[in-house]
């Protein structure tokens, strides 16, 4: 009897329960999920996590390299609380050189939950609590840029824009792809021909030049928020074709099934048949496709902003931050300016791992 219990539980489990059971066996997908939860958590709490404001300048620490968190000071003494040493410019360097020396005589302990620069949390209320700080001393975990701004704080703030633009863009792609693909697959005929020709035209045009042309058409005087939504809509309008073809193919294969014919003969409205009977039957596959499309949205925004035709300063995104890395000389002198690109790679890789795990979990022929 005990041996039959797991089989009985599998037989009685819903489709989503079976997907979750398969997904838990995909270790890389679980690791990717943990990374995404951490990234989106940092993006949601960026004001609290960042030790500085994204536009706060430190004129005496321009292009300062990342500081090392230490537990042993210059004399070899152990400190229970982590700390950073002070840094100062090397006065012996040439007039066109900027070098920093570690001042081992100064110790700045890193404390948790301390007060610092004031900020407006999500535009709702003012606060000045930060997750960590070195007090009056400098704390540049990822170094500073050419204006003396803390790169760690700017990367955390940029995560909110770069990660949410992927979710919003995929949501719009999800809506357009399901609507047009579902209509084409369900009604077929001339409607299908029109939608298919539209998809073929969009897929025949190179995406990057088209993105560049449409983004350049955005008025330069628009406020940053309008530019943000403009870039999101552009990415969505270019990314719905693949999902629409998947939805169309599924609708063509399911529209003559018995449950659809029964609903049609009973007088059910066509929109209700599409959204209540057809769509839920393969919703897991659509969600998987949408998950795999998020990295494309993130890379699209990064590419456009990197080229200077997407989001623009003072908006902070990973693509905007990578504009500082366009100059080879700047990268050679300050390689830490490439760190925003590392976060793009991590986020895209995590989304791909989660998407692969969801695709395997949604496979009805996968082993239990």
Instruction: State the low-pLDDT regions, or none.
Output: none
Radius of gyration: 26 Å
CATH architecture assignment name of the largest domain:
Orthogonal Bundle
Helix coverage percent: 55-70%
Fraction in beta strands: 5-15%
Major beta sheet, strand line-up: 1-2-3
Structural class assignment:
alpha+beta
- Give the N-terminus to C-terminus distance in angstroms: 20 Å
Which CATH first-tier class of the largest domain would you pick? Mainly Alpha
Largest sheet: 3 strands, antiparallel
Number of helices: 15
How would you sum up this structure, described in words?
Helix content is 57%, strand content 12%. It has helices spanning 4-12, 15-24, 27-44, 46-49, 151-187, 189-204, 207-216, 224-239, 241-254, 258-265, 270-278, 283-306, 318-322, 328-333, 339-361, and strands at 70-72, 78-89, 100-109, 111-121, 125-133. The protein folds into two domains: 61-149, no CATH class; 157-361, MetI-like fold (Orthogonal Bundle). It is elongated. It has a three-stranded antiparallel β-sheet with strand order 1-2-3, with no helix packed on it. Strands 4-5 form a two-stranded antiparallel ribbon. The chain is of the alpha+beta class.
């Amino acid at each position: 009897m005990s041996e039959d219990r797991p089989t009985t539980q599998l037989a009685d489990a819903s489709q989503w329960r079976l997907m979750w059971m398969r997904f838990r066996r995909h270790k890389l997908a679980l690791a990717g999920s943990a990374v995404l939860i951490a990234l989106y958590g940092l993006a949601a709490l960026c004001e609290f996590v960042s030790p500085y404001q994204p536009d706060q300048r430190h004129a005496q620490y321009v292009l300062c390299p990342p500081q090392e968190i230490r537990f042993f000071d210059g004399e070899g003494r152990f400190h229970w609380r982590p700390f950073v040493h002070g840094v100062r410019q090397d006065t012996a360097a040439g007039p066109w050189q900027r070098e920093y020396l570690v001042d081992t005589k100064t110790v700045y302990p890193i404390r948790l939950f301390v007060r610092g620069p004031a900020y407006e949390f999500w535009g709702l209320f003012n606060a000045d609590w930060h997750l960590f700080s070195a007090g009056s001393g400098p704390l540049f975990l990822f170094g500073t840029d050419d204006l003396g701004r803390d790169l760690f704080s700017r990367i955390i703030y940029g995560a909110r824009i770069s990660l949410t633009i992927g979710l919003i863009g995929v949501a719009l792609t999800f809506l357009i792809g399901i609507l047009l693909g579902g209509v084409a697959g369900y009604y077929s005929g001339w409607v299908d021909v029109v939608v298919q020709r539209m998809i073929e035209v969009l897929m025949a045009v190179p995406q990057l030049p088209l993105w560049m042309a449409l983004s350049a058409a955005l008025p330069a005087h628009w406020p940053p928020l309008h530019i943000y939504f403009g870039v999101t809509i552009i990415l969505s309008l270019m990314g719905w074709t693949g999902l629409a073809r998947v939805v169309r193919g599924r609708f063509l294969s399911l529209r003559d099934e018995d449950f659809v014919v029964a609903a049609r003969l009973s007088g059910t409205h066509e929109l209700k048949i599409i959204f209540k009977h057809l769509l839920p039957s393969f919703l897991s596959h659509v969600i998987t496709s949408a998950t795999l499309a998020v990295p494309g949205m993130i890379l699209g925004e990064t590419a456009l902003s990197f080229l200077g035709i997407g989001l623009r300063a003072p908006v902070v995104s990973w693509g905007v931050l990578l504009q500082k890395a366009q100059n080879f000389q700047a990268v050679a002198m300050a390689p830490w300016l490439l760190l925003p690109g590392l976060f793009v790679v991590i986020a895209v890789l995590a989304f791909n791992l989660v998407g692969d795990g969801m695709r395997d979990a949604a496979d009805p022929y996968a082993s239990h």
